[in-house]
Model the fold of this input.
Amino acid sequence: MKKIGIVLLIVVCFLTMGCGKEVKENDNKESNPDAYTFSYNGLDYVLGSEFTTSKYGKEDSYSEAASCAFDGADKTFTYEHFEVATYPDGDIDRIASIYFLDHEIKTPEGISLGDSINDMNNAYGSDYQQSENLYTYTLGRTHLNFIVENDTITSIEYYYDAEN
Done:
């Protein structure tokens, strides 16, 4: 009787563990509670983190220019709905900014180009810095910028303050 109990316990353990590694939805996600993060196609783009095309995929277009602030090249990777700009950090490219190109994508909080300033306030609150029609939310060294014209969001950009 004791052997049957042990065998059942082992079987239950195997059944609840499964075989091999279970891939969870978060396995491809990075997190940093002190940084804004943009998510697209199951990948998180954490501002200030390393950027590689092997991780994020082949871009639609690419450009680079000598960096004004760092040794190396600033690079821009353009994808279908957004652009990722990087800055050099030794041999690593780090995410400096993400710029939305159209209304097809949203922030993790559900805001996209064409939404209203009320939608922005409902999603992010009123703790922003305003300079004319630019609204900036800050989290650590990261910023989320919205340009609003006639109460409509016309630009969304995530920005990393690499120099501070």
Q: What stands out?
A: The helical segments are 2-17, 53-56, 117-124.
